[in-house]
User: What shape does this take?
Amino acid sequence: MQLNEQILARLEQLEKRVALYDLIASYGPAVDSGSAEAAGTLWGEEGTYDYGDHTLVGRSAVEAMVKGPQHQSLIADGAAHLLSFPMVQIDGDGATVTCYSQVWIHKDKRFVAWRVSANRWELSWDGAAWQVESRQTYPLNGDEKARALLAQAVAGIGQR
Amino acid sequence: MQLNEQILARLEQLEKRVALYDLIASYGPAVDSGSAEAAGTLWGEEGTYDYGDHTLVGRSAVEAMVKGPQHQSLIADGAAHLLSFPMVQIDGDGATVTCYSQVWIHKDKRFVAWRVSANRWELSWDGAAWQVESRQTYPLNGDEKARALLAQAVAGIGQR
Amino acid sequence: MQLNEQILARLEQLEKRVALYDLIASYGPAVDSGSAEAAGTLWGEEGTYDYGDHTLVGRSAVEAMVKGPQHQSLIADGAAHLLSFPMVQIDGDGATVTCYSQVWIHKDKRFVAWRVSANRWELSWDGAAWQVESRQTYPLNGDEKARALLAQAVAGIGQR
Assistant: This one.
């Protein structure tokens, strides 16, 4: 019985991880297809999205960004928001994900890497699904903020 | 007993997912090393590979593509077929994977992103392994087909 | 009881895999933030890192590389070491990971893909964590070594 409880807890931990993987992997398809509602739903009602020079506040702001003229023009020409294989840290009903993002655009018949950035996602588990509470994304252009974000993810590793 | 059956079913679900991950992750190494047989074996006998302007039909057509002069010339100069972290939807013995692909070539001593595309894979489980029934890959160059492919992957998310 | 042992062994296998995923995903954040100790700790004491024209030997050599002037200058301008979604082969307490790497640098206000390479990692499990015993990374610039490395990963697939 105790063993079964332990097994179930370990199974649930793995299932929560793959649910997190799928959420992260769905971000690109949502925004690059202009599926504003699907993109917004990844965020919690009050979740934030800080991309360095601006912060969106609330799920509806994420939806509005996807529907906005700048994003719509980007995807009409062809855009790809790729996220790299994520580093995941789950702690109870909270999780942190660290990964890189690349934004590709199509210009003069060529594919151009417009931005390469460091990303930190903080999420909460509502019992059935993950929701993004905050996402930070800072371009890796020498700005100290991007390095600090990445350092935070591995701060515990040197001490093991 | 009933609990054990439930546990085994959940374990199997996770194991099927990681088998799928490995299949996806093996595509690049197979084609970039010119391992035609390994690449072909990922597909079912009648599996298809639609890359926008042409569709390969059958495992042997995938093998022949890898052995063909265009692909051989590409990899002789150095090529990298990268797949992004995949979004996975498993439903019984069927699965759908959505991800991005990048094809890198080496030209004039520089690495150039030749294509950035949206991908949809449909697979079937034969009891021991996954097989590709169809892969679609459309460049993200503004073509509506690529956006429609990505929209399909997230169609269920807005409604949850 | 026997069933429980089987279940626990399968769970452990999945948990070892996600631990491996996280190790791989932490490499980029460690080196791009200049977290030399965190990067070094991924390697075993005697682990090696062969990047084609040079081989680092030992954890301390990896640490020294991250602290060195060339790497420090790279990350001061902004650098991103991305690893692609990895193909994983676990065999008892050993594992092999095959993936691609991209090194992005920031130059003249643009992001440039400096290197695109094939990677093979060999790791050992010490009972609680994975350690890198060897990493090989060879640029996909037409060099036969990169193709041979990728071929090795899929050598078993054609025969199934």
